[in-house]
């Protein structure tokens, strides 16, 4: 038996906010108005905001990650993507939010604390909400304000990422709705 056969199976995972149809339509409308024609556009089905990237995760950890998500709360809020930015180092064009809604910031902090207890080493950089529009953008694009894309946050998801010659394919492994508000 080879050493490869003895290696535990792993999945490339991340927690994210996943857009509904209205958000996708707003992003596509804005993308068309800006006339963005460079780089490799991110397909509609891959649009998202990463909350916490986990990397390669052993299969046996998946249930622990889902149990963690079951315990977390997400209050009602809205992310406003109001800037277009070109990040030279990763060569991506992104929509970014000038402000991080407190419920989203708290969810990210809860995720980081939770995965740390599971043995992960989450990224230390502060969370910065962004939606990648295009990859491999080599020609400089100036940062600018745009017509805001309003994203009502209704849930968060755990996503598996598979790569091939065509890019990344994402599969949602679990979805957790925001907390229900108390009804008077």
From TrEMBL:
GO molecular function, one term: 2',3'-cyclic-nucleotide 3'-phosphodiesterase activity
Catalytic activity: a 3'-end 2',3'-cyclophospho-ribonucleotide-RNA + H2O = a 3'-end 2'-phospho-ribonucleotide-RNA + H(+)
Placement of sequence motif HXTX 2: 130-133
Pfam families per the UniProt record, alphabetical: 2_5_RNA_ligase2
UniProt motif (HXTX 1) ranges: 48-51
Keywords assigned: Hydrolase
InterPro entries: Cyclic_Pdiesterase (IPR009097), RNA_CPDase (IPR004175)
UniProt EC number: 3.1.4.58
Keyword Transcription regulation in annotation: no
Keyword Hydrolase: yes
Active site (catalytic residues): 48 (proton donor), 130 (proton acceptor)
Family note: Belongs to the 2H phosphoesterase superfamily. ThpR family.
UniProt function note: Hydrolyzes RNA 2',3'-cyclic phosphodiester to an RNA 2'-phosphomonoester.
Protein name as it appears in the record: RNA 2',3'-cyclic phosphodiesterase
Organism: Methylomarinovum tepidoasis
